[in-house]
Design a protein that fits this description.
The protein is an alpha/beta fold. The longest helix is centred in the first third of the chain and has 36 residues. The chain has twelve helices and 19 strands. The two termini are 44 Å apart. Helices cover 32% and strands 19% of the residues.
Length: 414
């Protein structure tokens, strides 16, 4: 949007966005206290609702894995990413797919208490559930956009669509017609309006309060497409006019934040970085995943381990069978490639990952015994290390973690 005094290389942030950011920072302490005051009651109600899904446990060794989620680390990661941008830039929070598999019911209030006032999820059902968790204050965006079949949900939960096409915009204006975002395609060819479609729209309706795009290669800081997409974004928004106030502009998620201020505009939208994933190398670890050894056996050279006899011992070995598998989110491709840890020792996967079990080489680990908990993800074995061994990314690992783990949440400190 071209206005007097605006440079084409860097659109300014609307004044009302600055005011919103200032109010958010001033109110963060008060909101934190309010959230803590109701957190215990909410957690008790949530625990009661989930009770039928939880295994009955007594003291002693167990057969199920344990997933520990550090809520304080999530809040600190949000603050650290927030500090990377200036005070005029709002830092939102992307918590789609049930907060990347870690539980939006627990994660969202922590981020709101830390200062996040805008949240992004993918689908309307996620937005409706998030509104019930957060109440009426925060803004909730739906990245998938809008379709008339969701009209009631959008209206009742006061959700804002990220409109991705002229058709979605038309449907929105014929329906709820409240505040919304508009996404532009700057080269990713996934979602968003093409330059020709944007030009055909004419002046943006006043209901469009946010204009955004998404970087395809932001996790690779030297990739040429980052600058290409920024240039395309600036060209597209500088050609816009609006029937209302200038909308806030947004381009960067976690990777975009780390690319620097030229990619921040009026709002940034961190997601994976909140949960300790790459490319945010300075993130505090959020997840620790452990699983128990069920049985240990000695095998001779030439004996096979697991399905397909895909692993054969080259020497006398001790093999531990551990209670977790691809049904729990340990990607099958990790077999014979990944490692776990116990007592500071690296334990290689030996054989294929099966539905409920993995097998580890514990030949040189005297601490390995039935009932011992091995670490699959944690401070000594980062999320992205396991993901790389499985030929995937941290996003898939987190969102694949199953419901059979006993989940333990570490509350933020005072």
């Amino acid at each position: 949007m071209t206005r007097p005094g605006r440079q084409a290389g860097g659109p300014k942030v609307p004044e009302r966005a600055k005011e919103k950011r200032s109010a958010r920072k001033e109110g963060a302490t008060e909101r934190s206290a309010e959230t803590r005051s109701v957190e215990g009651e909410r957690d008790r109600a949530s625990s009661s609702a989930r009770a039928p899904l939880a295994p009955v446990r007594d003291e002693g060794p167990v057969l199920e894995g344990r997933l520990t989620i550090d809520l304080g680390a999530i809040a600190e990661n949000w603050r650290a990413l927030d500090a990377r941008s200036s005070a005029e830039v709002e830092t939102a929070a992307v918590i789609k797919a049930d907060a990347y598999g870690l539980g939006a019911e627990r994660v969202a209030p922590i981020l709101a208490a830390a200062g996040a006032r805008s949240f992004f999820v993918a689908q309307p059902s996620e937005g409706v559930a998030l509104r019930a968790i957060l109440g009426e204050g925060p803004t909730i965006y739906i990245l998938g956009g809008y379709a008339p079949g969701h009209r009631t949900g959008f209206a009742d939960a006061h959700l804002r669509p990220v409109l991705n096409s002229p058709r979605q915009l038309q449907d929105w204006l014929a329906g709820p017609a409240g505040p919304a975002a508009l996404q532009l395609d700057t080269g990713m060819n996934r979602l968003g309006c093409e330059p020709s479609e944007l030009a055909a729209l004419g002046p943006l309706p006043a209901c469009i309060t946010l204009v955004m795009s998404h970087l395809a290669c932001a996790d690779d800081w030297g990739h040429a497409m980052n600058a290409e997409q920024r240039t395309a974004f600036v060209a597209m928004v500088n050609g816009l006019t609006s029937e209302g106030a200038d909308p806030v502009l947004s381009l960067g998620a976690t990777g975009g934040i780390l690319l620097g201020g030229a990619y921040h505009f009026g709002m940034v939208r961190p997601g994976i970085g909140l949960f300790g994933g790459a490319p945010f190398r300075d993130a505090q670890p959020v997840v620790r995943l452990e699983a128990p050894i069920i049985q240990i056996r000695d095998i001779a050279p030439g004996e096979a381990v697991g399905y397909g006899a895909a692993y054969r011992a080259r020497r006398p070995m001790r093999i531990a069978t551990v209670s977790t598998g691809y049904a729990d989110g340990i990607i099958r491709a990790a077999g014979n490639r990944a490692a776990a840890t116990l007592a500071g020792r690296s334990l290689s996967y030996a054989g294929r990952v099966s539905m409920d079990l993995i097998t580890l080489d514990v030949t040189h680990c005297p601490e390995a015994e039935a009932g011992a908990m091995v670490e699959l993800i944690g401070p000594g074995l980062p999320l992205d290390t396991l993901a790389e061994a499985a030929g995937t990314i941290g996003y898939e690992m987190l969102t694949s973690l199953g419901r059979r783990y006993a989940r333990h949440y570490i509350a933020p400190g005072p």
